[in-house]
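Sequence in, structure out. Go.
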Amino acid sequence: MHSRVAKCVLLIALLAAALAPVRAQSWKILCTGIDTNLRGISAAKIPGSDRIAVWASGSHGVILRSLDDGASWSRVDIPGQPDLDFRGIVAISDTTAYVMASGEAEKSRIYKTTSGGTQWELQYTDVNKSFFLDSIACSSEKNCFALGDPIDGRFLVLHTADGHRWNPLPPQNRPNALDKEGAFAASNANMLLISNTELFLVTGGFAARVLHSTTSGETWSFAAVPIIADNSSSGIFAIATSGEGQLVAVGGDYANTKIALRVAAVSSDAGSSWQPATHQPTGYRSAVASLGEKSFVAVGPTGADVTHDSGLTWSSFPSRPLNSLFALDPQRVYAAGASGAITQFVPAESK
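Output:
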């Protein structure tokens, strides 16, 4: 394994129209110009300092790390694995992170580093051709879950309670999947971990549901969501919360990205019931993140949208195509996309 400086094209320009007379929200570009499609983005505070570590991952085995809130980047490689598609990453600190590869059977893997990427431990994989990982989330270094496609009619859910050993939930505890229902490995955002024991899963492909457990996956409740799910390329892609039972789900049809019907829905009762947004985002959205209180931002290949009323009404603003989002806090919201693009959200009031 070796580390090297990532060949990012570092910019200080803002993507939203710099000459616009109004102070609208925008994106600050932190990195771009790398041959990878980034779908994983995560950040954590560096212990003992005020600095932020940002980690990103994507296709062609690319894993990037910044120790200065995105000002500079280095690439860390996993030896012998140049072609894995790392679609999920979880930053624990500047030295510790989990990364998840998606793909059929052994191409789906979970690795962990505690050395800043100089060494990696392969923690889980499977030779079963139905094995396909979609997302990974952690509430602490030791407590993490991973979501996989259904096997034998039930969603695969993996869990570690010690940060090393991953085990599938017992078959009887895995949530049932409807006919042709699945999950999308698009942005590492189809699983939301609220605490050590509470998690939400969102589904797509001829179904759009939220699966909710408050018992670490021992029991589940299910709720239908008014998001388009008419074919294998449509459904829910991401879920986020601002707290106090307020949830926002986004999705659409990734094969018809400009369709702006039934792509966002909201819940005010911890996911028990859902209603469609009254003014929808402007197309398919693969990720959503909380900006604090009632504000959220959503991104996709056709742009970005923001809401300030808990997801009921959305307004678009200029953005390059983006896949994924991560909110460390309302002031530190990062996004990632094609060509190694990593950006940071700039709210209107801070310009």
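Check: The CA atoms of residues 102 and 326 lie 19 Å apart. Residues 10-22 have pLDDT under 50 and may be disordered.
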